[in-house]
Design brief:
By secondary structure, the protein is α/β, with parallel strands linked by helices. The chain contains eight helices and eight strands; from the N terminus they run E-H-E-H-E-H-H-E-H-E-H-E-E-H-E-H.
């Protein structure tokens, strides 16, 4: 079975203090998280660029083999809406190198109001080096078309496979040598838990992709995400044995 890493979208949530971290001080949260999961998706980088000190700290506090997927800054996806993005993309990728071997895929999460435009899509994909891993989460339904999947395959960029209870477009397409999966909650967005039947189905579906995968639970309310992630880990381990 292809290697599958499971984690959550972020780790620094006050409402996880007792349910997941058992009351540990915040300064120990990342170490605790990295002892439980092998990967995390960093949401904070969507709102502000990480400092060199921050990236060095993340690298120092996590073990070898731990993978951090970083969400691209909203300047690129929501303000410039993929246009004239060469300079911010270049600066972002250069800064991220400070994570060293902890650096995983970069996720570009597009706003639901951004429809597909062929010229903008092709120009943007041309900015992304093949030496790095990238994923695109397109939320406007116009992106879910064969032409887009073809461009992503040509660029080696993963189409983000997501679950949002039907709120955002969802297609299970593999367009790179890895898959990127985001589980936002099938009921209440960001807040609903996945029951055992749903997790078993997701485990089977992810295995059927037959490529390495990064899977992140973004249903962070009330400590649901780490609970769901640990259960999915167990189901995948059972499938592999």
């Amino acid at each position: 079975m292809a290697k599958i890493l499971v984690g959550t979208s972020g780790w620094s949530y006050d409402h996880w203090r007792h349910s997941f971290y058992g009351g540990q001080p915040r300064r120990r949260w990342l170490e605790f998280y990295a002892a439980t999961f092998a990967t995390v998706e960093v949401n904070a980088t969507f709102y502000r660029a990480p400092t060199e000190t921050m990236l060095a700290s993340w690298r120092r506090r996590t073990p070898p083999g731990f993978v951090m997927a970083l969400k691209a800054h909203r300047l690129i996806t929501h303000r410039r809406r993929l246009r004239d993005a060469a300079d911010p993309v270049r600066r972002m990728l250069e800064r991220q190198k400070l994570l060293g071997d902890r650096l995983g895929p970069v996720l570009f999460q597009l706003p639901p109001s951004l429809p597909y435009d062929r010229t903008d899509c092709e120009a943007f994909l041309a900015l992304l080096p093949r030496s790095r891993r990238f994923a695109l989460e397109a939320r406007h339904p116009s992106w879910a078309r064969p032409g887009v999947f073809r461009y992503l395959r040509d660029a080696g960029v993963a189409w983000c496979i997501g679950d949002s209870g039907g709120r955002f477009t969802a297609c299970r397409e593999v367009t790179a040598d890895f898959a990127y999966v985001r589980l936002h909650g099938s009921g209440a967005l960001y807040a609903s838990s996945y029951d055992d039947a749903a997790l078993r189905k997701w485990a089977a579906d992810i295995c059927s992709l037959e490529v390495p995968a990064y899977v992140y639970f973004n249903n962070d309310a009330e400590g649901i995400a780490p609970e769901n992630a640990r259960r999915l880990q167990r189901l995948l381990a059972s499938s592999a044995s």
